[in-house]
Amino acid sequence: MPRMKKQDYLKDAVKHIEISRHNVVPMVEAMGEMAFSARDLARAAKIYDTMLQDRNCSVILTLAGSLFSAGLKKVVVDLVRNNMVDAIVSTGAVMVDQDFFEALGFKHYKGAAGGVDDNELRELRIDRIYDTFIDEDELRVCDQTTRKIADSLEPRPYSSREFIEEMGRYLSKHGRNKDSVVLAAYEKRVPIFVPAFSDCSAGFGMIEHQWNNPGKHMSMDSAKDFLELTKLKIEARDTGLLMIGGGVPKNFTQDTVVAADILGEEAPMHKYAVQVTVADVRDGGLSSSTLKEACSWGKVQTTQEQMVYAEATLAFPLIAGYAYHKGSWKKRKARNYADFLNKELAKAA
User: Fold this and answer.
1) How buried is residue 273: exposed, middle or buried, by Cβ count under 10 Å (0-12/13-18/19+)?
2) 73 lies in a domain?
3) Can you tell me the distance from the alpha carbon of 342 to that of 337, in angstroms, rounded to the nearest whole number?
4) What is the structure's pLDDT at 279?
5) CATH number at residue 213
6) Is residue 16 included in any domain, yes or no?
7) DSSP 234-292
8) 106, 123, 290, 324: least CB-packed within 10 angstroms?
9) Of all helices (H) and strands (E), which one includes residue 123?
C-alpha cells in the first residue's frame, strides 16, 4: 500500500460546538427528573445559573484537559463575551497549544484513537491527542510566537496573567481567528491565570528566550500568580467555581481562601462550586477530591456544590448551554478584574 501523506491525516477539522444554537433547557430540566449522573448534571447547571443570578457573586472558571482541541473553545468564548465568567484559571495546554494556536490560524483535526500507526505519525510530524491530530510544524510556529512576545517585553518577573494579556494584545493586532478565549478575555478584561505556564508550548518559547538572553530576560513568577488571584478573591468576596477537570487549576483556585487567611485578610469560602470530572474519587488524587472534602480545608461551602462524574465534551455544553439560554447573564455587569489587577500592580511599583 502507498504511504500516507500528511494531508491525508490533516483534512477534517474539529468543529467547535456553539451553545447559542442549541436550547438545551428543556432537556436538562427533564434530566433533573431522572437519576444518577443525569440528575447531578441538572443540579450543576442550576447551580451555575444561580451563580449568574447572584449579583454579588464573581464566577471563576477552571479548565484542565484537552478541551479546546476537542471542540469546546467556542463554549468558553461565549461565556467570556457574555459576562458569564469573571476570571479563568487554566492549564497551559488549553490556553496556548489549543486556543492561542488556533487564533494564529491553525486547526485541530479529527483523527483516530485506535488503528493508527503512531510511529508513522511521528515521521510525518503529526501529534495525536486521543482521536485528534495536530500539525507539529504549526505548533512550532506557536512556540516561536510566544518567544517573540517574550523578547518584546521588559526584562522582569511576570505573572502568567500579565503574559497572557500580552498574548491577547498580540492577537488583537495579528490574530487570524477571532474566536479565541485569549483574545475575548483581553477585550472583556477577564484575567486568565496559568499557574504551570511552562508546561505547554509557551514553555519552549520561554526557554529559548532565556537561552538567547541569559543575563537579561523576562521570567514567570508563580508566587505572583498566586498573590494576584488571592487579591482577586479578596476583592470579589463571594465567588462561584465552575471547574472543568481538576489538577492544578482546581487546587490553585480553591486555595485562595486559605491564602487570604494567611495574609490576615477576610475572604469567605467559595459560595458555589461545580466540578465536571472523570477522575475516580477512590484514588485520593487532586482531580478527584470532592467539593465536600474541600470544605474540611475551609475552601468551599457545601450548600451549593455539585460533582458531575462525566466527560467534559458531554457535560460542559449542557451546563453552559442551560445557563446561556436561561438568560440570567443578561443582567450581569463585567467585573473587569484585569484592570483591577493592573491597578494593584501600579500601586506596588
Assistant:
1) buried
2) yes
3) 9
4) 83
5) 3.40.910.10
6) no
7) HHH-SEEEEEES-HHHHHHHHTHHHHHHHTT---PPEEEEEEEE---GGG--TTT--HH
8) 123
9) helix 118-123
Say yes or no to pLDDT of 142 above 90.
Answer: yes
The single residue listed with the C-alpha cell 512550532 is 140
Q: How many percent of the chain have pLDDT more than 70?
A: 93
The model's pTM is 0.94
Nearest CA-CA partner of 69 in 37, 115, 100, 24: 100
Tell me the pLDDT tens digit for each residue of 66-95.
999 999 999 999 999 999 999 999 999 999
What confidence tens digit (pLDDT) does each residue in 94-139 have? Answer: 999 999 999 999 999 999 887 789 999 999 999 999 999 999 999 9
Please list the active-site residues.
299
- CA–CA separation, 101 and 191 (whole Å): 19
In a domain, 194, yes or no: yes
- Give the pLDDT mean for 193-218: 92
On whether the CB atoms of residues 240 and 248 are closer than 8 A, the answer is no
Q: What are phi and psi of 205, to 5 degrees?
A: -65, -35
Residue 45 lies in a domain: yes
In the numeric block, the cell 495574609 is attached to 263
Most distant CA pair in the chain: distance in Å?
Answer: 69
